[in-house]
Amino acid sequence: MPFVRAMASAADLSIYSAPVPKPEALGGSDPESDGSRRVSTRDRSKGKVLVVDDETILRRGIQRLLQAKGYEVITAEDGRKAHELFRTQAFDVVLSDIAMPGWDGIQLLRSVRDIDADVPVVLITGEPAVATAVKALEYGAFHYLTKPVDMQTLEEVVDKAACLRRMAQMKRQAAELLGHDLKASHDLQSLQESLSRALGSLWMAYQPIVHADSGVVFGYEALLRSDEKSLPHPGAVLDAAERLGQLDVLGRTIRDRSAEPMIHAPPEATLFVNLHTTDLLDEKLLSGDAPLSKIARRVVLEITERSSLDNVKDVRGRVARLREMGFRIAVDDLGAGYAGLTSFALLEPEIVKLDMSLIRDVHLSRTRQKLIRSMTDLCKDMGMLVVGEGVEIREEREMLVELGCDLLQGYMLAKPGRPFPAVSW
């Protein structure tokens, strides 16, 4: 089930045909009048859900279902009351009807986003329409369902939403734990000259990514290198391209040169290629004639967690086109950057890479161990492979294996080099 179902016409809207169960069919007494049946602490629940619907039978039915599944559930019969509840309480998921007297679900969604950009909002409608779906997506709805609601589908959607909410909270904790460099400044004219020389001398180093249990090569990450001394590391080259408005030129050069050596790589090896978020706007990325596109089924496109996707229009559509071409998607630097749900909800990655700053000395830090274990468990629940990158010593490797990482990458295993370095296990 996709995180958010993009819709281009009314016919595209998923209409679930299963009947809405009556409250008495779900067992127990009226959940809105029997407070004793409500989970009293969040520590003992799977999460706290706000259910908003002016239809009493449906509202109580959903409440009873979610409580039976271990959620703490608070209800409201209209958007304005829900808004007041949201201002005073923390929720993990908001589940709301769209058509309600007074404030409708779209107004509630907008007000929720003003308070909390992360909390997943699931909208339900009895009258599916393209305009409504577009507004729901525009304001960041997590999922869009139609009545009559299939309760099993609803439960799956809420489970996934709550899971991602926990991931967002852990990412924020990780971001608070870690710090990052600021950009350096250059004179624009000399910077342009430096970037031109860097592009002329640009080459790609390849670092193996191996299976955590065996050390067997899973693939190689292509890493930017340049012989331009005034831009001494990849970050400096990226910063220069960004300041000069030439990220598209740099991105095309990296992608084309990354693909060239793969003809000599083992046939089962996967190529990991980093994308800047603005690369998603480049139509050449979607061209079937591009060198990388010709080997798309062997390629994982890494999109960093350090950059926001907010300014990229139609992210879901572009990612869907990339997947149709055969590409897989990875979220890079997990735990280092934006702590919201954006990257997960929009990209639905097959692979996530834990930031190396989180990995450093993990065997000495219970806080990091707890974060990584929680992240790996959540990612596996969502069917994602987890890569621990930046492994430098045996103790880090052994701890990451114990914490559940599927794949490993780092200097202890192999330093980046010309195609293709051997692994030391």
- Portion in helices: 25-40%
Backbone structural class: alpha/beta
Q: Can you write the helix and strand succession as a string?
A: EHEHEHEHEHHEEHHEEHEHEHHEHE
Low-confidence stretches: 1-43, 179-186
Shape: globular
How much strand?
15-25%
The largest beta-sheet arranges its strands as 6-7-8-9-10-11-12-13
Radius of gyration: 24 Å
What attributes characterize this protein structure?
13 strands; 13 helices; eight-stranded mixed β-barrel; 425 residues; five-stranded parallel beta sheet; alpha/beta; 36% helix; single chain; globular
List the helices and strands and how they pair.
Elements: E1 48-52, H1 56-68, E2 72-76, H2 79-88, E3 93-97, H3 105-115, E4 121-125, H4 130-138, E5 143-146, H5 151-177, H6 188-200, E6 203-211, E7 217-225, H7 234-243, H8 247-259, E8 270-275, E9 299-304, H9 315-325, E10 328-334, H10 342-347, E11 351-354, H11 356-359, H12 366-381, E12 385-389, H13 394-403, E13 407-409
Parallel strand pairs: 1-2, 1-3, 3-4, 4-5, 7-8, 8-9, 9-10, 10-11, 11-12, 12-13
Antiparallel strand pairs: 6-7, 6-13
